[in-house]
Amino acid sequence: MVLGAAVTLGATFLVIALGFCLTLHVAARYVLGDVPIGNALAGVVPATIVFALTLADRPLAAAPIAIAADLIVIRSVYGISYRWAGLVTLVHFTVSFLLGFTLRNLLALLETAPT
Question: Is this structure's pTM higher than 0.90?
């Protein structure tokens, strides 16, 4: 029973982290142009914060802390000013929100579909 919960939590974290990395790369390419794909691994930082604070039953604190951490990580990984990092962060969280909103609605639609 405990192993199943650990596997579920691990898989959930990997999906969230992959989503954040994907959306970070999309945002960085949109704002900065051609960027190395390896830099997108910086998306693991806000994913970890969101995942941990949501598990700790602090979902309202997750967004502002993750956004601040994302700004700092993007600035250091991409070597850009705070102005450009802020723009990448804004686009990153917009794309992440839209992806999450769309996937959640698709799952809700599948759950209510007649069989």
Answer: no
